[in-house]
């Protein structure tokens, strides 16, 4: 069935959309990229040109391969040019009113057999699918930035998505070189639901004067080998994006765990969005490191053996992952794949858990709770099941760890 795919449409050619168009063209699909006007189209074409030039300069593409890829790419300002597309994916701004207009239009323009996909990172795929007369052929296909590089693709299904559509989109994701995980429609999906609350945790620690931004960022690099800390990552992703995801999670779960840090909200209000505005938690290369924090809580964290700063960020994320697995939303393999291939983690949450042991993770969570440093009131049941004393306790389903399944 995948071999029958010929023409793919990509609507929205910002950095992400242009990357998606490039990925499909590299995989041999004929791609038409659509933008709202000529200026946006020129910017999108520029994104593709820049990416391909970089690949050639690094020896990852030959000039002949680049020419072949470019021959499969066409650009248009008319959605009507998608009238014979087999598959269309959108990467327009994350505003439901824009998606509503687009999907209503695509539903009218495209043949009934065309699969429509959204690259949304946090909006409801179910709501988007309900905008069309073909909800069984609408899915989420969530890429990670930069799309030509990051290997993860989240395939998000709704209660209306047909099994055939899921099979086709999953196969397409593999054909374009991605590692797909297939999951249901839930706030934040897997990667953002694990990553953004962790970023929010880092902001909360900073807001409460527990440590400097440099100490917070270095702590997780040391504890888990992450390529960057949560505050640097917030600046890179964009504080407005982080806040939007937290608000989506809050709206869906109404759990204090997903309450956005007041500091995060204030910084977005002030227009300090991170690298895109030149000001976030960091302001530039010449900025001096912050002085050591001297508050009572900062002293407690420095002195208390069970309160390692890095572990205070990693343990809640492991707990989140175990709850996700315990809910039956994702498997251990899914959460590890999402964080490794979508977020650049060297090890996934369950691998980090195995490395530390449940007892140490729970000790950190309990110690944080004693000082009101976390909203995790009770560790996840799956974590508790992994304690040595719980091996013969059948109160949580006979013991053992479902994350190994």
Automatic annotation (TrEMBL):
* The entry's keywords: Oxidoreductase
InterPro entries per record = 3-OHacyl-CoA_DH_NAD-bd, 3HC_DH_C, 6-PGluconate_DH-like_C_sf, 6PGD_dom2, NAD(P)-bd_dom_sf
The record's listing under Pfam families reads: 3HCDH, 3HCDH_N
Top-rank taxon: Bacteria
Residue stretches making up the 3-hydroxyacyl-CoA dehydrogenase NAD binding domain:
7-185
Domain 3-hydroxyacyl-CoA dehydrogenase C-terminal per the UniProt entry, residue ranges: 188-282, 313-387
Q: Determine if Ligase is one of this entry's keywords.
A: no
Q: In which pathway does it act?
A: Lipid metabolism; butanoate metabolism
Family affiliation: Belongs to the 3-hydroxyacyl-CoA dehydrogenase family.
The name on file for this protein is 3-hydroxybutyryl-CoA dehydrogenase
Q: Which organism is it from?
A: Nocardiopsis exhalans
